[in-house]
Amino acid sequence: MLDAGLPVGAFFTTREGGVSVAPFEGLNLATHVGDDAARVAVNRRVVDVAAGAVVTYLKAEHGARVHRVTESSAEVPAADVLVTDVPGLGLAALGADCVPLLLHDAATGAVAAAHAGRRGLWAGVVDAAVAALLNLRPAPASPALISASVGPAICGKCYEVPVDTRYEVGERHPSAVSTTSWGTPALDLPRAVETRLGELGVGTVVRHHLCTFQEPGFFSHRREGETGRQAGVIVCGVSVPDGQASGT
């Protein structure tokens, strides 16, 4: 587990541990990739223990839809952002090259987990995640009270895309424009997510500069094709700093 560096319990999983076998070998946490369901259930219990909570996993649709989680046993619809302000609830965003994004709001103690792929970034998923936290506040307060952690994802030197795709995303997120190490058009999704968080006024952004394509300790759909998924996990806790809940 990789510590997310946030004020609440939050971490990013790797493929280390777990009981899944090739091509999902390790701690695969996805139920939709063809892995044995019983093995995935065991893997998810490993994450529950690490989190100290029952974790709810989002079902990405590569957009910007938000779903608020109020109880751990509830079925969740397809969405790319999960948000909760219920202490003790855990949220997780799955991925195997896309950006797992975790956020915490010191004004309320609320947390969010988001899945930021190319299409979701273009659709505004980062904005939706920040807005979801702001909407849970009883009164306006500065977005600077929000902290975020950008997890391991495919980097801008490895994520090759068609030139028109780079242009389309780059129009909306110029910092996403990149070139692969072999000289072809690319997108740098983690950099674009980090940049957008800053533009939205998020106070603290922690970025983990680990490329899932280059690092064999992570699942990578681009590298392997059929493979598992790791997760960004965050648990809602009581961590509102004294005197900051109504800050501006």
In short, what is this structure?
Helices cover 23% and strands 22% of the residues. It has 248 residues and is an alpha+beta fold.
Any overview of this molecule?
It contains 6 helices and 13 strands. β7 (99-105) and β8 (111-116) form a beta hairpin. The chain is of the alpha+beta class and 248 residues long. Mean pLDDT is 92; it is low at 240-248. The strands form 3 sheets. A 6-stranded mixed beta sheet has the order 4-5-8-7-9-12. Strands 1-2-13-6-3 form a 5-stranded mixed beta sheet. A two-stranded antiparallel ribbon has the order 10-11. The protein has a single domain (2-235), classed as CNF1/YfiH-like putative cysteine hydrolases.
CATH class: Alpha Beta
Strand content: 15-25%
Let me know the largest β-sheet.
6 strands, mixed
Residue ranges: pLDDT <50 for 5 or more in a row? Answer: 240-248
What order do the helices and strands follow? EEHEEEEEEHHEHEEHEHE
- The SS-based structural class is alpha+beta
Helical fraction equals: 10-25%
Rg calculated over all Cα atoms: 17 Å
Strand order of the largest sheet: 4-5-8-7-9-12
CATH superfamily: CNF1/YfiH-like putative cysteine hydrolases
pLDDT averaged residue by residue: 92
Assign the CATH architecture: 4-Layer Sandwich
Instruction: Tell me the distance between the termini.
Output: 35 Å
Number of helical runs?
A: 6
CATH topological fold name: CNF1/YfiH-like putative cysteine hydrolases
Domain module count: 1
Tell the overall outline.
Answer: globular
